[in-house]
Design goal:
The chain has a domain of 251 residues. The radius of gyration is 22 Å and the shape is globular. The longest helix is centred in the N-terminal third of the chain and has 29 residues. Strand 1 and strand 2 form a beta hairpin. It contains 20 helices and two strands. A two-stranded antiparallel ribbon has the order 1-2. It is mostly helical and 486 residues long.
């Protein structure tokens, strides 16, 4: 049975960190004087007080066992979403707490689905609240990198259990202070790339405020923008190309970035078979989209077709969700390709959502091995990816994850349809939430919003966001009766 005092203590530490991060939008609010200062101060006080009270729970030991690890991961994300909703709710900018929680969970899970639209536009939010909305992406993105590279592999879930990252990590049986070393390395990489993008976007004509907010959405592959029309509002080739590059970077395993930045080993990218498949998927999908756009409108220039295709392919594959065009107008075939990209997602160890490229790689390798076994039933044919032999336990984990993903997708689609949402839109909202992509299909396309959904449907989608972001089993395991046995 997990030590709840230990879990509460760790969640308290996290909430104090969230309260400290809320000081950044407080400074923004003071600078612009939009009238949201009081609400942010109150949010800081409530969050810090809650975290401080949880710190009074004195844990029996300093490290976390396996069960506490699962509990901390799941409870922390829920607690962050609740506290992150406070600035929206207290300010009155989003009157419904359900909507506030949805927006906050969408931010921290880097989903990017928003209830804002219609009568309440993104541009109508005060600068402090708008900055906090984007900052939740950046905080959640860093948290996901740390989880996927350092914590989830030890817990036995997550794509990075397949390949060990070359960064200091935890021991196999306990979460130890060595995670601090991992976190420090990852923070430097994440922060450094973010600063570079902010500067480059500023050169492209964005304000410092917009540059920072869009960088938060890009590096976390979240997709919250300061404009209702997203990136299309800027109508800038330069800005679109910069964001394409950094979305691509954010979809790559951050351990590879660390190797490159610390050792200058650029060849490590190409040595990664997952990276090669990721690059191939981007190239082929962009070519398909480009040919579709040219066929639909031969008068359009090749550069425009390439830019729009590359932007949407990288945006959807990395589950960022930024929009430079309305891809629902590109035809059914293009939408099918984009939906497949939503499922695939980015690389393991990245901020991208979805199933992850490495799991798709394992799936197809397993299919290939099974076909060979039909021809050579007596042969011993281990599953390999390059020189890496994949253990049967990992294959079972991948198959279990894909099955759970499919069941959740089917079940949630049916549940949303039961609430009166048409089937295409129900599927679109479900896959967009579970893959942490934001824009979906039907009434939840790239130019639509989630504000009109029934409240119950918003809670369903918020739960899907958390399940998808935390690799499904990390959350489901705490509902198992075996988890609570002594």
């Amino acid at each position: 049975m997990p030590d709840l005092r230990n879990v509460g203590f760790m969640v308290g530490v996290l909430l104090l960190f969230i309260a400290a991060m809320m000081l950044l939008p407080l400074f923004i609010s003071l600078y612009y004087g939009d009238g949201d200062t009081k609400a942010i101060i109150q949010s800081v006080i409530i969050t810090a007080a809650t975290g401080g009270l949880l710190l009074l729970l004195k844990p029996k030991r300093k490290d976390l066992g396996l069960r506490e690890g699962f509990m901390v991961v799941a409870v922390s994300w829920a607690a962050m979403a609740i506290m992150g909703a406070l600035p929206f709710y207290i300010s009155g900018e989003i009157p419904s707490f359900t909507d506030c929680f949805f927006e906050s969970m969408s931010g921290f899970t880097t989903t990017g689905a928003s209830i804002l639209g219609g009568n309440k536009t993104i541009e109508s939010l005060p600068h402090g609240i708008l900055f906090w909305r984007s900052l939740t992406h950046w905080i959640g993105g860093m948290g996901i990198i740390l989880l996927s590279l350092a914590i989830l592999p030890m817990l036995g879930v997550g794509g990075m259990q397949l390949f060990r990252a070359e960064v200091p990590g935890p021991t196999k049986d306990k979460l130890t202070p060595r995670i601090r070393d991992t976190a420090e390395i990852l923070w430097y990489v994440y922060l450094g790339i973010s600063v570079l993008e902010i500067v480059l976007l500023k050169f492209g004509g964005m304000s410092w405020f917009d540059s920072a907010c869009h960088t938060f959405g890009t590096m976390a592959t979240g997709g919250f923008s300061t404009r209702s029309a997203s990136i299309a509002a800027y109508n800038s080739k330069y800005i679109e190309y910069v964001i394409i590059v950094f979305m691509f970077i954010a979809g790559v395993n951050f351990a590879l970035h660390y190797r490159f930045l610390s050792k200058g080993a650029i060849g490590r990218y190409w040595e990664s078979r997952e990276f090669r498949l990721y690059l191939i998927i981007v190239a082929i999908s962009t070519a398909i989209m480009m040919s579709t756009l040219i066929r639909n409108d031969p008068s359009r220039s090749l550069e425009i077709c390439f830019r729009e295709s590359a932007f949407q392919v990288v945006s959807i594959l990395t589950t960022t969700g930024f929009g430079s065009a309305d891809w629902e107008m590109w035809g059914s075939f293009a939408q099918v390709i984009l939906v497949l990209l939503m499922v695939v997602g980015g690389m393991a160890g990245s901020t991208g959502g979805g199933v992850k490229v490495i799991r798709i790689q394992v799936l197809f390798s397993q299919v290939r091995v099974q076909l060979r076994r039909l021809i050579h039933p007596q042969a011993i044919l281990p599953l390999r990816i390059g020189d890496q032999m994949i253990d049967d336990g990992i294959v079972h984990n991948v198959m279990g994850f894909l099955l759970a993903f499919g069941l959740l997708l089917a079940g949630s689609t049916a549940l949303l349809a039961l609430m009166g949402i048409d089937m295409v839109s129900s599927f679109g909202a479900s896959i967009a939430s579970l893959s942490n992509i934001g824009p979906g299909l039907g009434d939840f396309g790239p130019t639509d919003h989630y504000g009109w959904m029934p409240s119950a449907a918003k809670w369903v989608c918020a739960a899907l966001m958390m399940l998808g972001r935390l690799e499904i089993f990390t959350v489901l395991v705490i509902f198992s009766r075996h988890f609570w046995k002594r």
